[in-house]
Amino acid sequence: MVSTSFWSPDGKPISAEEFLKSLFGALPDIFKSENELQEIWSRPDTRKKLLEELKEKGFAKSQLAEFQKVLHAENIDLYDVLAYVAFHSSIIERSTRAVNAKAQLGNYDARQQEFLNFVLKQYVSSGVYELDEEKLSSLLLLKYKAITDAKRALGDIESIRKTFIGFQSYLYQNRRVI
Fold first, then answer.
1. How far apart are CA 16 and CA 34, in angstroms?
2. Strand locations in the chain, DSSP E?
3. What's residue 177's pLDDT?
4. CA–CA separation, 53 vs 48, rounded Å?
5. What is the pLDDT of residue 173?
6. In angstroms, what CA-CA distances link 177 with 41, 87, 96, 141?
7. What angle do CA 130, 111, 117 make, to 5 degrees?
């Protein structure tokens, strides 16, 4: 017998199908429409609150990641998994989301574009958690080796933060699947 890695909110082992049914039943309490989900998911602070709410309802980050594996959706943003479960929406791979978002890079100067391209590569390879606000300083250090060098290239921390957060909405705009 294959053991499951899914658990109900009260700690009972459940199948992937039961997990899916439970998730489907819980999502309408968290967001009412795909537009609402898109609005929430587009900002790191509201996305974090949504993930906390999911965790409180028994859907921890580790279980959601395991569920993505069951769906063979490791290269898919968790947003798409939630939108698919709740609304039967099309699933778009992270790489396609990144390509679509790149169309908006013209709104930024060359140095910001370079940084945002770097962020997009991290997002495509590692997932949505690379877009957390708490990751910004480690992304800056990874790219520039020192915060002072990042500030020299991109401006003050508040400007960098606004660029990092503001650009994320382009990842979740409704766009055609390429």
1. 23
2. 6-7, 13-14
3. 46
4. 9
5. 87
6. 18, 16, 7, 33
7. 35
Under-50 pLDDT residues of the chain:
1-2, 176-178
**Tokens, residue 107:** 């709104």
Burial class, 19, CB count within 10 angstroms (exposed 0-12 / middle 13-18 / buried 19+): buried
Residue 18 corresponds to which tokens in the numbers above? 């039961």
Phi, psi (degrees; rounded to nearest 5) at 31: -150, 150
CA angle 113, 117, 68 (to 5 degrees): 145
| Rounded Cα gap, residues 165 and 158, in angstroms | 10
- The Cα–Cα gap between 12 and 14 comes to 6
Read off φ and ψ for residue 70, nearest 5 degrees: -60, -40
